[in-house]
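Researcher: Next sequence.
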Amino acid sequence: MASGSNAKFDERKRKRMESNRESAKRSRMKKQQRLEKLMSEKTQLQNENGLCHERIDSVERNYRVLDAENNVLRAQLAELTERLDSLNSLTRFWVDATGFPVDIPEIPDALLEPWQLPCPIQPIDASSDIFQF
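Model: Next structure:
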């Protein structure tokens, strides 16, 4: 009987080992699938990250262009303000010196709001020798 009991024990042991092998195989397969899924997600995230970097670079380039244009507009505004102040000063001097008022025609509103004009305006180059007194 001892040999019959050993045979049953060996059979159970063999089935348990086979079951453990199958379980380990399933576990390795799940681990491999999880690894493949993570690698796929990694690749997808790297691609999305690359697209985000490209968009950021594009926005930064556009910002630098707009910032440079803004600096030019600020310089032009400063120059035009200086011209206007000089012209106002000359007008006051003329009125004070001659006693005759200067009749300055009203400037059309469209010229005061050039961004609303139907056609583009040529840029004004800023320079320091515009007025030579």
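Model: The chain has a mean pLDDT of 84. The chain has two helices and no strands.
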